Here is the input.
Amino acid sequence: MYLRIGQLLFALLFTCTVSGQPEKIKFGRISDEDRQLLSAPGDSAAAAYVLYDGLHLTFEYLQGKGPVRVERFHRRLKLLKPSSFDRADIILPYNRDYQDITGVDAVVHLPEGGTVKLSKRDIITEKRADNREAIKFTFPQVSPGATIEYEYTLRSESILVPTTYQFQEDIPVRWAEYTARIPVYYKYVSLGNQGQYAINDVSMVRLAWNGPRFSVPGAYSSGNANVIEQSSIHWAMADIPAFEDQPYTNNFSDYLPKVRLQLQSVQYPNQMITKIFSDWTTTVKDLHARRDFGKYYQRKGNYGKLWKEAEAVVMAGATDREKIDAAYYFICRRLKWNGHYGILASESPNDVFEGGGGNSADLNIALLALLNEAGIEAQPLLVSLRDGGAPIEIYPLITQFDHLMVYTEVDGQPYLLDANGPDRPPGLPRVNALNHRGWIADELNPRWVDVNVPSARRTVMADLSLGADGYAEVSLQSRMDSYFGFDARSCLDEMESGNDAPLAEEIRTVFPEAEIVSHEVLKGGDNSSEPLAYRMKVRIPAAMPSEDYLYVQPILLPALDSELDDVETRLYPIDFPYPQRLQYISNIRLPEGYAVEELPQSVNLVSEDGGMSAKYVVESKPGQMISLIFEVELDRTLYSAAEYPVLREMFRRVIEIQESAIVLKRAK
Amino acid sequence: MIRLSLLCCLLWAGARVQAQSDVPSLLVLDSVLRQNANSTVLEYDVVFRVKSDRTATYGYRKVTGLLNDRHEDEDRLVENFDGDTKITTFRAAVHDVFGKQTFSSRKKDIAVHRYNDQMSFYQDLWLQGVQSPCPTYPCTVTHEVEKDLNDFGLMGVSQWRPVGREQSLVSASFTAYVPLDNELLYDSNLLPDPEITVEGKERVYRWKVGRRAAQVSEAQAPPVTETLPYLRVGLANFEIDGYRGSFRDWQSFGRFIGDISAGRDELPDQLAAEVRESIAGIDDERTKIDRLYRLMQARTRYVSIQLGLGGWQPFSAEYVERNRYGDCKALSNYMGALLAEAGIESYPVLIHWSRRAPYDPKPEFAASPFNHMVLYVPSQDMYLECTSSDAPTGYLGEGKEDRNVLWITPEGGQLQRTPAPRPADNGHTRTVDLHITDKDNVGVNLSATFYGSKQEDFRSLGAHIPDRQDQIEFLHEKGFLPDISGEAYSFYSDPDRPVARVDYRTQVRNYVRRMGKRYFVPVNRYYAYSWVPEVGEDRQLPIDFTASSFVVDTVNVVLPPGYAVESGLSAEEIVYTHEVGEYRASLRKTEDGVQWIRTLKFQPTRLPATAYADYRQFFIDVSKTERIQLVVKEGQTK
Here is the structure.
């Protein structure tokens, strides 16, 4: 768990903090100071400045349909630099099956005075073929200093997950506020991150409501109005600086203040409570009752045709492991991923098979069906993708998941399957799915597990035969497993010339003139479950001849391709997707008549925390030979922001090592 | 429910592509057709039937054998449609190598979505597509399409490419039926002359192309329209939305474009007054143009809204003035109107904006292979790019030079060529001072001026990345700056000339490698030119080299006291010359270190395939020389 759950707990505390609340913002009315403003205070470089942004959530009740979520958006944005003019192109997407956008109003306040209102004609509804639609408009007369302002109402018949509200943006914000009036019947949990609120006001109020009347003791009506208890929320932030995105960050938006509500239960007076989610056990049962989840892989009617095609291949396996692998490769070879992720199947495994592919859930549910039929214990494993947010384990929220994989075990050890092409072996999820934790939707025992992979390894043995002209004839053998093997196989599939061969590109970043003489897969090319053994012959100008000297750059394949970027202050943790171990062993034959003048020092480096280490040993050997060993291990994948300088220093040292040279001199 | 879906299946089966019998077999493929091929076109028959000047039908049946998974999306059928085009037949099927049908598209397999070229905010074009799964290779994919076209004359059916690279061909044909009072105009590459006959009230044009081995796909090759069979067609008479046009010659086609734009250049009174005011008292025409171009730049922004006559008709000057935005046509039209108010004549210009145009318009054949519009001022022989908010007046820009374009003059179209750049127009001069004090401390002083295309990437840096540190990060990411922690950074782009200058100073570590008493000093570590063409032992296609630039880099290395160069100095200038360019590098000792000066020139040229080894060697020589390294040693007196 990498998100501090403590921040997520929600309570209807009766609190009130108010500071610096601006005057009430009225649509279309702007002060002269704001109209003439030409820079954001404290951030003279800002391209644009949000003067006001607000989201107001209320509820209505549609007879015969139930509650409707009504969200009123209002935004006033000062455009300061031409780079912000794109922000005047507005696209408001919605799903017409259950949503609607109305009441669009848009004006632009010109810096020299005057306000232009967009006419109905300027606001276009773009219908798409599926159920998605979008309202589009762009503001006229945009110039530096222009202020655009618009508001609209989004109505949605689904009240499960109101729109997530983010206070902080990539440009500075003067005032951002979230307000809500939620009838007491609807109980929400808050999963957001609290910010430094200028207003933090949560209270109970009695307000009119157009929903059904219930006779409740103590309830009263004011005239004809149906007045009920509602929770009133008002959270506002003032003067929020622009956020900064930093490299090697995962789940970035987890670090920003935001409001994220999720419906937990509905209870009308004198009625039974309807739990939207209760606990993981109930959730898993509900999921399995769905056709597009459990039934697709549990009922043979849905996967019989697929099984018929696969049966012989799968059942040919003697052990469970062999059967699992056979089923995995069958799916990988026969079904193509359509580029979409999902946790629910779009159609039955039979139909997916006939259509030749589907989303990530389609492929993995088809795999589950095969495993199920083959008598192998296997469960759906749900994850959020990298950058999709750290998992929330305390509430059984299905909406947090993006992707479905398969969890099974071999010899009591977890064995994760994620079908998408045969180049990636069973046991190795796609890199994007390595977001630390996943939830096993096991009907009897739903649970969270670590989504971990062992270190990816690459070993390279390079024999260099060096000529006096500086060119080396290199015979290179490599063994690559895990993601290294996967990358190399993908490379082999896609390569158009020798330059694109595995390892060739990395060699060519150091030696652009390297000539790939030959390359050959020795083992594991067609079978990703074994490491890829690979041989390559290369001709490389590995040394610079100069008068009597020969300066040799012995490491042909760098372990790290670049230093970690300099950043003045690291704000967020560093999160590498998986651990790696790289080993480079080389024997260098010197040209006739040359002797070693100077060798780099051997080094052994271990980072303070032990999470990263490097070893470099270079020695002269009899018979005009030099032997060299270079190893880098990155065992730890997650570093706090405070550890960044140490990690960066390690990277620098490693790069220094891999670039160090050997000096040879011609014997007199 | 079950019964209903069964019924649906039966209905669909009827509509499916016929199975087995009429799909040509892949078994006939011999080794010649398999060589270099990822797929093979077994048959591809197009029928284009012109019914009137504004209506036609178009259809084809294409059977492609997929030999492996490296084919170019041949398993995907995509067709566009809009208000004027209706797709009436749309089917895909797959057969395995034995002729058994394994897939036939159903309604739910067909996806329809709005086309988005990533450039346009709003565009009225739709795509319909289906993906056909090939269970095992090889397999055969059959596509059948029919469309009804209305107001199609401009873009409806304009080209045919029977075969692509890495694809062999068994047979293909293109047949056009044209009413006798009209005429099909055509231009082709590597196709035999059409067979032309008269059938009733129609003239029939039939092209047939037979067996062809696959052409390889090679980098820096000429466009496929020059190396593979290719057909371009147009009509002598067409009509769109009541406008009559013709592809008879460039003049006629240009007149049509002029006609659809006519009457859209009237300026609102207030703007007309502003135009007169801004040029009041100025006699020099060039200065007037500059004032008005700046007025247009300051007043408008580029938003692509592709509506109206398939995106060919510009929005009026009044519309642009009211909204202060427009696309390339609307803004060119607006600029033209501003100039007209000042009594300066200008012509809209159709152009293909790209690094290498896929089809070069020819004087003898009028066509419409354009994707952009600029403006030309004949009295000053000057082009104006109206979608840029900060280009210098008269700067046309990369990807638009040295190509045939169409001027829309009052007398009709004129095919003209934009000026070819000289290498020195696009390039840089850069000086790097390296002050080496010790291993962990190298001072880098950098000063660079970029010209022409080389400054386009960051000309608008100030406008688009206002924050200084963000600018540094951007330039670092693009390889212009060595790090992001430096100081004394400045950036300047000349408003009136295509010139931008960057200055920067920083301290870097890890520049010099120390070993015992030696320092290894790479001379041109940050800016080495290292591109080398891929190995091409059996090059088949000509080399189409398009770069045109001239760069000068100077590096001054200042050594710590007591240190001298052990090796790396060479007495003579190193020179490599080749048709594509020239490389010169010299290294000389200075009082406190060494100075390295290198020039690299590229010029566009086309070379035969046989020249490939020499061509590649030039870049190998350059790249190797660029990695020059000095070895410096303490106490060395040399």
Remarks:
- Chain A touches chain B through 56 residues (CB under 8 Å).
- Chain A has ten helices and 38 strands.
- The radius of gyration of chain A is 31 Å.
- Residues 280-450 of chain A form a domain with the C8orf32 fold fold (CATH 3.10.620.30).
